[in-house]
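Progress against Task 2.4 (sequence-to-structure conversion) is shown through the following example record, which the project officer requested during the mid-term review.
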Amino acid sequence: MTKRIGLMFAGQGAQQPGMGQDLHADYSTVQSLFAEADAISGRSISDLCFRSSLEELTACANCQPAIFTVSVACYRALQQEYPFTPTICAGLSLGEYAALHTAGVYDFSSALQLVSSRGRLMDMACRQFSGGMAAVLGIEQPLVDDLCRRHGLEVANYNCPGQVIISGACEALDGAVAELTAAGQKAIRLQVAGAFHSSLMCSAAEAFSAELDKHPLSTPKALVAQNFTGTLVNEIPELKKNLLYQISGSVRWEACFQQLKAHCDVLIEMGPGTVLAGLAKRMDRSFPVFSVNSSETMAKTADALRTL
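Structure tokens generated for the chain above:
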């Protein structure tokens, strides 16, 4: 029986210096992709990924085009070793653009230009407001909702049962984290540049609307689960609207994962890190999940796909 392969693409925060460098050395398709990215961007995405410091990569304007390009590079490399047509695609926040590119909604140039604009506008919003994010672990959702209400915070990500990300002004976030810590609960401040997926990103979302209008969309060739609704979406106006709302709205990744799992036999995470594979294992340890983030993991995944 033909395997139905689902793809999930890494989001912001997965960046790491040197990402994609070994794939670039080993695969001609990746070399061509980075050359194209450099030409489209008018800057060296290659240098950004291979030679930047972690601090440089943390800025949205750098991080977003870099992670997007590496994620697509992982997909192209795997295709070179094991050609296949994905059944369903989804990405975490920024990763949604790599998912839409892979599903045929945006060509590579349009998607790269969009994530570059998105990163630049989100950086501007970060400079306007002092914001941050924190992971809240092992707390029932009604208690998280109450915490956010009392401190003026918002739920940015519904990642999986027992793990949500809260977002908002730094002072309010500090107060909420201190309250949880004092109560013996687990809350971890994240190393991010701002309060993503909260109302503090509204200025970025408003400005991004004009950027979205510059790039045409095509009907997806694979199923697509989108963050803002946590549902499958195939109508072009809704795909576009959800990309806009996603900037300042919650990411419903748990719901996206359930859509992925329902429509494929194996899941592959594309891009730096293994965050999404880790979340998948927390939600269903028995479901086959692989990560492609290097030449080594790509070879292991290709071998596994041949034997499944």
